[in-house]
Design a protein that fits this description.
With about 200 residues, this protein is mostly beta strands. It is built from two helices and 13 strands; from the N terminus they run H-E-E-E-E-E-E-E-H-E-E-E-E-E-E. The chain has a single domain, classed as Exo-inulinase, domain 1 (Jelly Rolls). Strand 10 (about 140-145) and strand 11 (about 150-155) form a beta hairpin. The longest helix is centred in the middle third of the chain and has 5 residues, at about 90-95.
Length: about 200
């Protein structure tokens, strides 16, 4: 009975231990610090990635909040085929599942940044914790925000034309890849208290 009590709830495995950055590596500028049991973004554009393994046909869960500033910006990177070497690797070689309360439908929480817009907005008020689940199944990516499906993207579907240098390079992505979280800018503060996977 004791062994069962130690099993992760409903098959979820924590990728972040809640204490330090064991298993994670930072590239780019800025950093993540642990504050009050959560990862906090600091500094400029950077990427904190899980270097232990890559994931395929799995569901990822992040629990996050943006404190008070309306423009807080971050994201969950998925489907990165290799361990990233710089802050922009995830943008152009994977997908960024956006975290931003103020962006338009292509650039708000739950969107695959500039590639697949949300079909609904379901982010909680600033300062409250949100749960985002991202299912990777073949080349399909599904995003649920606080229990509601807000995005479904198939890797071969049509996407808008690329207009700005900072928008992701278009093209297919790996079915199996590394994941990471973004620290966007010095004025963007986002907290993550859980990063988990269900394989």
């Amino acid at each position: 009975m004791l062994g069962a009590a130690l099993l992760p709830a409903a098959g979820w495995e924590k990728l972040w231990n809640g204490k330090d950055l064991t298993g994670w590596k930072q590239v780019g500028w800025g950093n993540f610090v642990v504050e009050d049991g959560a990862l906090k973004t600091t500094g400029g554009m950077g990427l904190l990635f899980y270097e232990v393994e890559a994931f395929e046909n799995a569901t990822l869960r992040v629990v996050f909040k943006t404190p008070t500033e309306k423009g807080a910006n971050s994201g969950l990177y998925i489907r990165m085929p290799e361990k990233p070497r710089d802050a922009w690797y995830g943008v152009h070689n994977g997908y960024e599942v956006q975290i931003d309360a103020t962006g338009d439908d292509w650039h708000c929480t739950g969107a695959l940044y500039s590639l697949s817009k949300v079909t609904a907005r379901n982010m909680k008020p600033l300062g409250e914790w949100n749960t985002m689940e991202v299912e990777l199944k073949g080349d399909v990516t599904r995003v649920k925000l606080n229990g509601k499906l807000v995005n479904e993207f198939k890797g071969d579907q049509a996407v808008p034309e690329r207009k700005m240098w900072f928008e992701p390079v278009r093209g297919p992505r790996a079915r199996k890849g590394y994941i990471g979280i973004q620290n966007h800018g010095a004025k963007d503060t986002v907290f993550f208290k859980e990063i988990s996977v269900k394989k």
